[in-house]
Amino acid sequence: MAKYFDVHPDNPQRRTISSVTDSIRSGALVAYPTDSCYALGCQLGNRDGIDRIRAIRQLDDRHHFTLVCENFAQLGQFVQIDNDVFRTIKSATPGSYTFILPATREVPRQLLHPKKKTVGVRIPDHTVAQALLADLGEPLLSSTLLLPDEAEPMTQGWEIKERLDHVVDAVIDSGDCGTEPTTVIDFSGGEVEIVRRGAGDTSRFE
């Protein structure tokens, strides 16, 4: 049965956030809110968590996992980024964007796209997600909480608790969050490719 954490949207309770991050360090898979929608998240090296995300979402090995980072300095440890791309991404973060970039050696192999050796990264503009990342001190390995055969991602904490009670370990509820997945921008092929149009404005990339 998943633990249910009621977190204030503007002033997240430190003790509650610490309880969640302690669980993550102990191997928990959590559902947490972001500026785009809810996401499933676990610690970077959590193989069981990765397998559970794949099972819940029925993902194949071509799926791009996302490293949700607290800030740009942290993001830069996990992806290779040149000056032009740096400036473009810097101007769009934090925000509802996921960027596909070549991964550094810091990224576990099982997270990489099998052919491209790329990974997704993002910096959310969400108070509770940021509090979680700051307390954890490392990125959260994440994937949008979009269930198979459903067109819309899940956006209500109580509904997630009800439907995924036996497949996740914790649910963070801080009220309303975003209702659309992130906009996904691929920089790995030399030219900018908009892979998915979502919550983020694409005009700066076109």
Question: What's the layout of helices and strands?
Answer:
Elements (H helix, E strand, L loop, with lengths): L2 E4 L7 H12 L4 E4 L4 E5 L4 H11 L8 E3 L3 H4 L7 H10 L4 E6 L15 E5 L4 H10 L3 E5 L12 H7 L6 E4 L9 E4 L6 E4 L10
Parallel strand pairs: 1-8, 2-8, 4-6, 5-9
Antiparallel strand pairs: 2-3, 3-7, 4-7, 5-6, 9-10
Helix pairs in contact: 1-5
InterPro entries: DHBP_synth_RibB-like_a/b_dom (IPR017945), Sua5-like_dom (IPR006070), SUA5_domain (IPR052532)
Pfam families: Sua5_yciO_yrdC (PF01300)
Protein name: L-threonylcarbamoyladenylate synthase
Question: Mind explaining what this structure looks like?
Answer:
The chain has 206 residues and is of the alpha/beta class. The chain contains 6 helices and 10 strands; from the N terminus they run E-H-E-E-H-E-H-H-E-E-H-E-H-E-E-E. It has helices spanning 14-25, 47-57, 72-75, 83-92, 127-136, 157-163; strands spanning 3-6, 30-33, 38-42, 66-68, 97-102, 118-122, 140-144, 170-173, 183-186, 193-196. The protein has a 10-stranded mixed β-sheet, sandwiched between helices. Helix 1 (14-25) crosses helix 5. The radius of gyration is 16 Å and the shape is globular.
